[in-house]
Each structure stands twice: as structure tokens, then as C-alpha cells.
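Sample intake sheet
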Amino acid sequence: MKLIYRGNTYDYDPTQFRPDNAGRPVKSAPRLQAPYTLMYRGETYHVDPTVPQTQSSLPRAYDLIYRGSTYHVDRDAQGNLTALTQSANAPRSKAISARVSQREVSQLHQANLLSNLQRRLQSAQERGDQSLLDLLEAERKQITTGH
């Protein structure tokens, strides 16, 4: 049987059983001491097994982009989050503390929901869509009463 995996062709005969190889690789992996090159998904990596591995760690500060908004993250020496700030070039720049209470998050979430709802109400009024306005008013009552 001819098998092809990622461009490599293999000949395999399932009727041929060799008990000396059962459950083990055909050849043991060589212990390489000389530097070698690996290629994975088009990227080339150079490996030198004689050089001791260094422990990688998270960077202390870095920028993230989510849905077009840029956030700057700062961590302390132990890797704990100390500050998360939205970039100044974003339209709504606010610093978010790592120790925000659940109540404050809930209030901010409700304010964001109401702001979004207000924008949708204005759009429905401009189009004169009364059925959508009725639905949005019901949604506003749900948000403000917490149900």
C-alpha cells in the first residue's frame, strides 16, 4: 500500500508483521551532538544540543490588539498582572486596574450595554421601524431592571 503524508511517500504492507519491531520505532532516535537545522511550517530553526537550554519567561510588558483596540499589559517580576491600559490612540482610553471589583465590572458592562442600545434605538428611529423600537424598549427594561 502506498501512503502519502505531507508530500512524503511511504510503502506499507499491513500483512507483514515483524515481532522484533512490534510497538517500537524502526530505528531508535539518534542522540545528536552536532548542531542541526529543523524546518516547521516554512520556518527554519537552528538547534545546538551542546548549548544548555534557557528557561523562557513572559515579557514584563507587551501590547495586545483585540478587535482593533490596542492594550498595553504590565506584569511584575512574579508574572502577576499589575496594569492593563487601553492605548491612548483608541477612542475610549481608560485604565483598567487589575483589582477591579465585580460590582464595578457589572456597572461598566451595564453602561456599555445601554450605550449600544441607545445607538440601536437611534438607528431604528431614523428608519421609522416601530416594531424594532418596541423590541429595543423591552430590551432596555430588561437591562435596567436586571432581568
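Comment: The helical segments are 102-127, 130-145. Residues 90-94 have pLDDT under 50 and may be disordered.
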